[in-house]
Design a protein that fits this description.
Shape: globular
Structural class: alpha/beta
Strand order of the largest sheet: 3-4-5-6-7-8-9
Number of helices: 11
CATH topology of the largest domain: 2-enoyl-CoA Hydratase, Chain A, domain 1
Radius of gyration: 22 Å
CATH architecture of the largest domain: Alpha-Beta Complex
Distance between the termini: 86 Å
CATH superfamily of the largest domain: 2-enoyl-CoA Hydratase, Chain A, domain 1
Helix content: 25-40%
Number of domains: 2
Largest sheet: 7 strands, mixed
Order of helices and strands: HEEHHEHEEHEHHEHEHHEH
Amino acid sequence: MSWLTRSRQRLTGFIQRRETPDNLWTKCKSCGAMLYTKEFEANLSVCPECGHHERIRATRRFELLFDHGQYARIAVSPPPEDPLKFRDQKRYPDRLKAARAATGEQDAMLLAKGEIGGNTAVVGVQDFAFMGGSMGIAVGAAFVTGARAAIAAHCPFVMVTAAGGARMQEGILSLMQMPATTVAIEELKEARLPYIVLLTDPTTGGVTASYAMLGDVHISEPNALIGFAGARVIESTIREKLPEGFQRAEYLLEHGMVDMVVHRRDLAATLGRLIGLLMQKA
């Protein structure tokens, strides 16, 4: 054994190998750029290279929208679970249990009250991390609770959507949330209170077919996927090639389905201005 090998072995015993944390770097899902995670999060989870807006959790959304990140959560009464005793590869209660353990939340919609631009507002946020933000009885109940909390406080209701559609494990009961939420929106209109929708990636299915497209004002984050059926389903139905960027926020803006596309860093300020203007007439 050479002196160099012996020296290396001695040094190895004194110097511990430094391990690189697994979350030190984040890869952009759009352009593939490797981003330093701390800088990526400081940039509001927006890629500085291509501007891709990564999905964020509901609590993070509250922090970004409410003034100084200060807000109070609004509790929602838990609805009955597994009303249809549904089972596919797993039992529905097992899927709920796994989603709750992974997210720390009871279901896919969270509610909070605070100030945006100095104006009181109730905000509902769908968390895509909870079973794809799917709309079930709990989401419908949370929406109605949020709308009525806004009416009680005489303030706007802001809904931040992110969903893959209705929750299949609840069948027709999930689809019944579409008329239920529509009635809640009518209650807001009767109270002459603004209902503002912030569409984020993705907003699809029964959510798009109901409360996501019934706002007084529709705002979207850049390049968000917004639609009802999937592009491949539409192409196979109409047997035509869809236009470039179909179902993306910018395409919908050009065709009048979205009022504005706003970068994440400007959302709070934009909402604050909108609420201030709309509440002058409320």
